[in-house]
Amino acid sequence: GFNQFTDSWVNFGSDVDRNETVMATASSTFVAGDYAEGYIFAMDEGGKFYAVNMSDMTESYYIKNLYYEYLDLCYDDASATMYGLRNYGNGKCYLYSINLLNASERYVATIDANLQSLAAVGDGTFYGMDNKGILYQVANNEATAIGSVGLPVRGSQATTYSSGKLYWANG
């Protein structure tokens, strides 16, 4: 993961407070990112899009300034597509695809929910969390509330899907 307080890439065990290991210090403060094709594609707080080499996390490659900070990025393995989630504070969010080679963006859909994070599960379905801790399923560009996770939302969020499980980072 990325520690925004120390601007560093970290690895951590089951007890995050005691087992965080710094893997590399970053040159930027990254606010969103996801793994794809051997790299973490990440966006800094200024809207700049980077590829960070997973084999040597001190190597990062600037791709392009998108001039807008995405709330979250998620990679869909099935379609080999990186998606970005934008939110303009109007109770809706906007889904874009992002080309990994040149960071060109393409508008995909408007989602009628105030999502803060997004995960792709590989079949065209996404899951996202809103700013009140409500989990949504997004399919065919329609958001359906599944229910509250029962926890208060604190700061930045990230959602990811791996090995049949959905994970949510809140803080």
Explain the overall architecture.
The chain has one helix spanning 16-19; strands at residues 2-3, 8-11, 21-25, 30-36, 39-44, 48-53, 60-65, 72-76, 81-87, 93-98, 105-111, 115-120, 126-130, 134-139, 142-148, 157-162, 165-170. The chain is an all-beta fold. Strands 4-5-6-7 form a 4-stranded antiparallel beta sheet, with no helix packed on it. A 4-stranded antiparallel beta sheet has the order 8-9-10-11, with no helix packed on it. The longest helix is centred in the N-terminal third of the chain and has 4 residues, at 16-19. The protein is globular, with a radius of gyration of 15 Å.
Label this structure with key terms.
171 residues, mainly beta, four-stranded antiparallel β-sheet, 1 helix
Shape: globular
Overall pLDDT metric: 82
- Count of distinct strands: 17
Number of helices: 1
Low-pLDDT stretches are none
Structural class: mainly beta
The separation of the N and C termini measures 13 Å
